[in-house]
Each structure stands twice: as C-alpha cells, then as structure tokens.
Amino acid sequence: MTFTNKIRNVLDSLKNPSKAELKDALLQLDMTLDNLAHLPEPSEGKPYNRKLLYKNEEVELLVMNWSQLECAPHDHGNSFGWIQVLSGTSRNSVYEVNGNGLPIELFHVDYQKGTYFHAPKKAIHKMKAAIHTDLVTLHLYSPPITGMIVYDLPKCAACVVSDDCGAWWPDEQYQKVKEIRFRKTYKGNGSYNK
After folding, report:
1. Model confidence pLDDT, tens digit, residues 54-104
2. Are the C-beta atoms of 95 and 106 separated by less than 8 Å?
3. 193: how many CB neighbours lie within 10 A of its CB?
4. What confidence category does residue 192 fall into, taking pLDDT thresholds of 50, 70 and 90?
C-alpha cells in the first residue's frame, strides 16, 4: 500500500471527528519525513511553505516547512486540529483576547520532534522554528480551515483571510476577506495605549 493510499484509508473514514478521533488518526498515519516526497522549501520572506496532502469535506492534512520567521498570531476559524513536529523544535505562543478584542500573549511552549499538540477551535496562537532548527510540522484539521483570522498587533488590526493565505498579513488585496481595526494601539511589550 502506498502512503497516499494509507492517508486515504485513515482519513476517508472520519465523519465529524472528535478531538480524540482526530489525534488517533494522526497517530495511525505514523508519518515521518521519509514519507514525504518533494517537501516544499521554506518561502522567502514567509514563515513557512505548505503542501496539502489530503482534503475532503471533513478534514485536511498539510505539511509545513518553516523558515526562521514566525507566523502572525492567528486562529483557525471554526476548525480545530493537531500538530505533529516531524523535525526540529517548534515554539508555540498562546494568546488570550483582552477586553478590546486584541490578543495578548500568555505563554509559549517548545515542542520537539515527535511531539503532538492540540490547536483548539477559536484559540489564537503563533509558531516559529526554535533558533537554528529545521522545523517541519504536520497539521490535521477538522473541518478544513476557512475564515482564519490573522492579527497584526503593531497595527492594531486583524483580518479574515482567504483560504489560500497563510498565517501572515495578506500580500494581495483579494486575500483580505474582511479587515478589522481596533481602537487601542499596541506598544510592543504586551500592553496597549488607550
């Protein structure tokens, strides 16, 4: 059986999967870097380049190859998922939305090769490769991500991005589905001016 067939066999059976079922599917895939032919090179000026491995109405499976840049704080719309670190170490920063709608970083956790971590629905986070590591991650989401919100904290703004945009401020106008402006300005040290 080819690895593509294995992905189909495991993921085709998922119907409105729970958190536990989604993680179990990722564990069943038992994916390593050796399973991935033609891994996308990190994009210049972007935090990562991604490759869609599988998608149906219930789930999507992506692999991401990271540069040394961090992605913007973002949520995953109405999706939740699991992230597996295939190579390197990922720094995952978790945010909480304050009273004015802007996220404030609460803490960060480093995840090393072989670990899995959950991305809850509507949770805001950002990721980056730990210094001097070649980070590759595998992402399994349900349902496929749509309506992702990306935050630009220094500009005190956010936007819902198109499905072809990653976790960064859109380069193209058409990728900004809806732009959101906040009243307070971000000072860069975790606080805001009134």
Report:
1. 999 999 999 999 999 999 999 999 999 999 999 999 999 999 998 888 899
2. yes
3. 9
4. low
What whole-number distance in Å separates Cα of residue 187 and Cα of residue 112? Answer: 31
Residue 11 Ramachandran class (φ > 0 left, ψ -120 to 50 alpha, else beta): alpha
DSSP 74: B
Where in the chain are the domains? 3-146
> Top-level CATH class of 3-146?
mainly beta
The rounded distance, in Å, linking the Cα atoms of 32 and 114 is 9
Distance of CA 123 to the CA centre of its chain: 11
Helix (H, G, I), strand (E, B) or coil at 83: strand
Q: Is the Cα dihedral 16, 19, 24, 26 positive or negative?
A: positive
Measured distance CA(188)–CA(194) in Å, rounded:
14
Peptide bond between residue 47 and the one before it cis (omega within 30 degrees of 0): no
How far apart CA 53 and CA 26 sit, in angstroms, is: 13
With residue 8 as reference, give the H or E element that holds it.
helix 3-11
